[in-house]
Design a protein that fits this description.
Elements: E1 9-11, E2 18-20, H1 41-44, H2 55-69, H3 79-99, H4 102-112, H5 122-125, H6 132-150, H7 155-192, H8 197-230
Antiparallel strand pairs: 1-2
Helix pairs in contact: 2-3, 4-8, 6-7, 7-8
Length: 232
């Protein structure tokens, strides 16, 4: 596993020995370690903070650790060990659920790097500059469609207009997803060669910006879906 910074040690509650942050069992006494405050989902699964992960590799790591931590194996262990197995099993499930999805994986990386969205509504309160034109055109189209609905226009005609209105937004989302893929690859390449923070930071900023745009695009598409549901 590669790491961006030196890994702090975690302390075994049984023997007091130190262990790497990504260790699950104490190297000295072999007892299962309690979850500490250090570490993250990536290191817990023995991974660097890359954005392109192999689904098969991730699942194999998950299943392997699931067997090691399963509470059944600690039925006759001390209370501390039983609690540690439950803690690690729960943390493992959260880690796997977060990292197996590229979007939640990126959100988690941004959180680790101190660039998470300030609040869930951040993307919907301000129109991203790159989407101004599409948002303006869509709002005008939706206003016209609502006027047509009030005037008694048949639902099938309204649905056709909404489908056409969705086209440019879907195209924007497709282009946006391609940009995200490029940034994923760029981040992973920088991480692989141990690039300094000054070089990695702009890529993280771009990823954060694209993530906010992605949320806004999804909100636009959800608005179109709501309008279409009105005519059903």
């Amino acid at each position: 596993m590669t790491s961006n910074t030196a890994s702090p040690l975690q302390v075994c509650r049984d023997c007091g020995g130190g262990a790497p942050v990504d260790a699950h069992f104490c190297p000295q006494c072999t007892k299962i370690l309690s979850i500490g405050r250090n570490g993250d989902y990536f290191s817990f699964l023995g991974l660097s903070r890359k954005l392109n992960l192999s689904s098969n590799d991730l699942e194999q790591r998950f299943r392997g650790l699931s067997r090691q931590f399963h509470p059944d194996y600690f039925f006759n262990a001390t209370p501390t060990e039983r609690r540690a197995s439950l803690e690690r099993s729960s943390y493992l499930n959260d880690a796997y659920r977060t990292l197996k999805n590229p979007v939640t994986r990126l959100e988690y990386l941004l959180q680790l790097e101190g660039l998470a969205a300030r609040n869930p509504e951040e993307a919907s309160k301000q129109v991203p500059p790159d989407l101004l034109e599409e948002v303006f055109a869509l709002n005008e189209e939706l206003d016209e469609i609502r006027e047509m609905r009030v005037s008694g226009t048949p639902p099938e005609q309204l649905t056709a207009r909404l489908e056409r209105a969705r086209g440019p937004i879907e195209a924007k989302r497709a282009a946006h997803e391609a940009q995200l893929e490029d940034l994923f690859a760029k981040w992973d390449a920088l991480l692989e060669r141990g690039a300094p923070d000054a070089e990695r930071r702009p890529v993280l900023e771009s990823l954060r910006h694209r993530m906010l745009e992605r949320n806004y695009i999804n909100n636009l598409l959800a608005g179109i879906e709501r309008e279409m549901a009105t005519d059903v």
